[in-house]
Design brief:
Length: 343
């Protein structure tokens, strides 16, 4: 099992990343702001127009340290990738499966099963924990509708049918997402999922956390020897980490969405940390962004018991574990891909 390291998030505008011996050095205006031993890191995420030295990029690629560049507001720009990990036979099998709708269907069905199952249990957990503060009948009805979608998944014969079932269930799930926001209702409300750009505080927060989760999932897939750009449910598109988007479907409700709700309901952030632009786009300010990043790192260190393996591990290792299970399935070591089912 890989040791869970830390992700370095660089949010300082106009910073420059360099390598000095075994250290990542953050510089600005010729001054050194901080240095971090590279061996302590499993990822670097740079926000804004941060530059990086060729020496650092080369060393990160060589050592498998995921180096990702995002805009200041979390939109993906680029990733630095080194020599492909894993053997060529695994990746060739991944590509063959991706080209076969029948074989892709089996994996996609498992991943969406995980997403729907976990979406349902986010709702069920809320009913259990906050019954006196929620419309439990409404939430129970939504949970039942998602359960009905789950029952239809085994009958899906095409990827489009899988997408249709997932889309219908997602609509049900997000129809009660606002009910799960228990604090700061005037500043944090949710009517529907919107993005590119997000137009309210909740969607801005959800989109940002999904970007963080996508980075972690892509890094996990690369570590397991898989190509994060070749998926089974999300279609291939230049620059899109399709397999990472596939795999993270299982984690969106239980890891990302519950994390967002916790930030709001425990008042770790507030509405003052968001600004609305003239075009209606809502963005986080620097202070709030840093609070979210610190809390995300802490969340990834929390321990859970993996439902299939029965092993205790940090949340941050769950994407890596699922990537390994997917690789084992593609190699023929498992009869089916086992999705992550949280309860």
């Amino acid at each position: 099992m890989r040791i869970l390291g830390n992700t370095l998030y660089v949010t300082t505008p106009d910073a420059y990343l360099a390598l000095d011996g075994e250290n990542v050095v953050i510089q600005k205006g010729g001054n050194e702001l901080r240095r971090i031993p590279l061996h302590n890191l499993d990822g670097i995420v740079a926000f804004g127009y941060t530059g990086a030295s060729p020496a650092l990029m080369g060393t990160c690629a060589e050592r498998g340290v995921a180096l990702t560049f995002l805009t200041m507001h979390g939109r993906f720009l680029a990733r630095v990738c080194g020599t492909e990990q894993g053997n060529v036979l695994l990746r060739k099998e991944q590509y063959r499966v991706s080209d076969s709708e029948e074989k892709s269907l089996a994996i996609a069905r498992g991943m969406i099963t995980g997403k729907l199952f976990n979406s349902r249990w986010v709702i069920e957990r809320a009913i259990r924990d906050y019954a006196m503060r929620l419309d439990t009948a409404k939430l129970k009805h939504t949970s039942d509708l998602i359960a009905e979608s789950l029952r239809h998944l085994p009958d899906a014969k095409t990827l489009d049918e899988i997408r249709g079932i997932e889309g219908k269930a997602a609509t049900c799930y997000f129809s009660v997402f606002d009910d799960l926001i228990l604090q700061q209702k005037e500043q944090f409300f949710f009517q529907s999922r919107n993005r590119r750009p997000p137009r309210d505080n909740v969607n801005a927060l959800v989109s940002f956390v999904y970007t963080l989760l996508a980075h972690d999932t892509a890094a996990a897939l690369e570590t397991a020897g898989l190509d994060p750009y070749v998926g089974f449910l999300h279609s291939d598109r230049p620059g899109r980490i399709s397999l990472a988007l596939d795999l993270m479907e299982e984690f969106r409700p239980v890891l990302a969405d519950r994390f967002v709700l916790t930030l709001i309901n425990t008042r770790q952030i507030n509405g003052d940390g968001f600004v609305q632009k003239e075009d209606g786009a809502v963005l986080m300010d620097d202070i709030t962004r840093k609070k979210v990043l610190v809390a995300w790192q802490e969340k990834k260190q929390e321990k859970i018991t993996h439902p299939m393996l029965g092993e205790k591990m940090e949340w941050g290792l769950v994407p890596y574990t699922q990537a390994l299970l997917l690789a084992r399935y593609l190699r023929g070591d498992l009869d089916a891909y086992p999705p992550f089912l949280w309860k």
